[in-house]
Amino acid sequence: MANIGCEICGADNACTVPAPSGGTMDACQPCEADEIRQAEIDTNWERMLNTPLIPLPA
User: Fewest 10 Å CB contacts: which of 1, 28, 30, 47?
Assistant: First the structure.
């Protein structure tokens, strides 16, 4: 069996996992968790940018 390297950090013993942007990627467990967390941060950021601001009283 071939040893798969992580696409992000280069560590050995990575697994092919779903990529947050679609498709797949080879990632070790720490990098996979980081990618999932970053996707959640990006989603929350986009949601915040699309939320109208409430004007402050003058």
Answer: 1
Q: Which residue has the higher pLDDT, 5 or 56?
A: 5
29, 40 Cβ separation under 8 angstroms: no
Question: How many helices (H) and strands (E) in the chain?
Answer: 1, 2
Alpha-carbon distance of 1 to 30, in angstroms, equals 22
Closest CA to 21 of 10, 7, 35, 8: 35
| Local confidence band at 2 (pLDDT 50, 70, 90 cut-offs) | low
User: CB of 17 within 8 A of CB of 32?
Assistant: yes
Which amino acid, one-letter code, is at 31? C
